Amino acid sequence: MGKKVTFTAKRAESIEEFQRSAALRKTSLSEEISNGLDILAPFYAAINSHIHTVNEIERNIQSILKKCLNHEVSEKDTLNFEKALWSIWENNIRQQQELLEDNFYIHKMAGQRMGKIEVDQIAKDAEDLVAKFGAQRVIWIYTDRRVNNKHLKAGGISNIIIINKTNFGGYYFDINHTVIIPLIDLSIYGATRSIKNKGVRLLHSYLCWIPIYHTNNMAVMVPVLEDKYIHSTCQEKCIVTIINPFNEEIRNI
């Protein structure tokens, strides 16, 4: 005995196929749908008889995936991930063009640290560059800095990286927490351990650190985290990050 069922098809294309079949076989649409259900019913019966096994398999797969995502990612996968983030940095975060500056500033301090006059002038120049290139900020890296205490001068040659944006594809490049570490430490210990050995206080749990520049046997490293974990200290409105590797000095202005 037949049983009447009313339903709504999710895909119009499915009904259209049954309509074509009905036209070819010279039957009604309801009869074609009924025939289709009769054909599929034995398969559903077989599936239902093993439903508990299927559920168990699904649970096992979910457990394995969770372990892979949280704990058991291979070294190869990690390297590929870091390469992908570095590619984002190169192609989406920074501009390809680098600028070269050669300036000297009044320096009244006794040591090698950058003075207020020097930092303020660099910040002013950085503001002009941001406006000129329509950028978000810049990274100002000294590649050759000299201090002449006798003539009260300090400065030298700098490379400037123009930053279009600090996040892309759900990842945030935390330039405010850039660090510089010796290349020899990086080659021996890797980024994470080198940064810990340096005594850097990490405010966030970062996915990885990517190298963006090296000079004076020092590597400039920028940490990356997911957008959803961005902290207020990440988004301080800084126009320039000044890096003086000759005194291991970083300023966010």
> What number of structural domains do the residues give?
2
Gap from first CA to last CA: 82 Å
Main β-sheet, in a few words?
A: 5 strands, mixed
Helical stretch count?
7
User: Shape, please?
Assistant: elongated
DSSP summary, beta strand count: 10
SS strand fraction: 25-35%
Q: Which stretches of 5+ consecutive residues score pLDDT under 50?
A: none
List the helices and strands in order.
HHHHEHEEEEEHHEEEE
Radius of gyration: 31 Å
What does this structure look like?
Helix 1 packs across helix 2 (29-49) and helix 6 (183-189) crosses helix 7 (191-197). The protein folds into 2 domains: 12-70; 76-252, no CATH class. The protein has 7 helices and 10 strands. A hairpin with a 2-residue loop joins strand 4 (167-168) and strand 5. With 253 residues, it is of the alpha+beta class. Strands 1-3-2-9-10 form a 5-stranded mixed β-sheet. Strands 4, 5, 6, 7 and 8 form a 5-stranded antiparallel β-sheet that branches.
Question: What key attributes describe this structure?
Answer:
253 residues, alpha+beta, 2 domains, five-stranded mixed sheet, 7 helices
In short:
With 253 residues, the chain is α+β, with helices and mostly antiparallel strands. It has 7 helices and 10 strands.
List the helices and strands and how they pair.
Elements: H1 12-25, H2 29-49, H3 51-70, H4 75-93, E1 94-106, H5 116-133, E2 137-148, E3 153-163, E4 167-168, E5 171-173, E6 179-182, H6 183-189, H7 191-197, E7 208-215, E8 218-226, E9 240-244, E10 249-252
Parallel strand pairs: 2-9
Antiparallel strand pairs: 1-3, 2-3, 4-5, 5-8, 6-8, 7-8, 9-10
